[in-house]
Amino acid sequence: MKVYLKFFALLGIVLILAACTPVEPVSPGAIVDDLGRSVSIKEIPQRIISLVPSNTEILFALGLGDKVVGVTEFCNYPAEVLDKEKVGGFSTPDIEKIIALQPDLILAGSIHAKEVIPALEERGLTVFALAPENLDGILKDIEVVGKITDKEKEAFKLITQLEERIEAITDKTERLKPQERPRVFFITWHDPLKSMGSKSLPHELIEKAGGVNIFQDVEERNFQVEFETVVYCDPQVIIVTVGHAAGEAKAFEWAKEEPRLKVTEAGKDSRIFPLDTGLTRHGPRAIDALEEFAKFIHPEIFGAIEN
Length: 307
Fold this sequence. Notes:
The protein is α/β, with parallel strands linked by helices. It has 13 helices and 13 strands. The termini are far apart.
């Protein structure tokens, strides 16, 4: 009997000590990135460089701004990122500058696959690529970044909030009949005139917001279009991206005044709207874009936006 009492007493002490001992973060280990590469991440990153604006937005949305030591010249959201060290352009990062910042994790994109990633890895740096193609991919990448950076709770909370916002839109648009879905023309630039096809994020946003992309049969992401085709398709809603660096709102101002667009239903009904191009980045703000699209396309359901 005394032996059993001693055993349970010792077991109790062990359990108490285990409960009081701080839990060290578990290293992420080997994780497959969006390019299909298995990346070994041995420790929780403390010095992170982002080579893609959408990656930067994910990091800040997870509360990792203090660990970001470098970003590109095109990373401009949130405002705090403007004070971060710049490591060059989106497609032309400065390798030597990146090395000098001594990062223990670099978040890259698909554009860096052929040259930048190999160059960085040759110098012993850890590079993980994010390249989400749609909303599901964005949510998955938020989860992965949370795992890598020991921010899994924050990632779960953010994903839950974003999913709720998506469902608030789709719960209302999924029931729409084909004839209740307006034809939408999405303009990325005006000279030459460009739009986006079925493999793009804006296409998904249009569909989820209850519209029909007039170029849904084109698979290209960003391509030049003929005016005759636009007029023939007769869009009922036109959405124009604004904020292209020096271009700012040129495409939107052009769209409002272009005589050939005035003959479309969108032109006749003054349903030509500007959209901050930053919202179409493949990051958390894509859900902001979805909510804007929903108001542009179905003001009778989601409330009107002044244009």
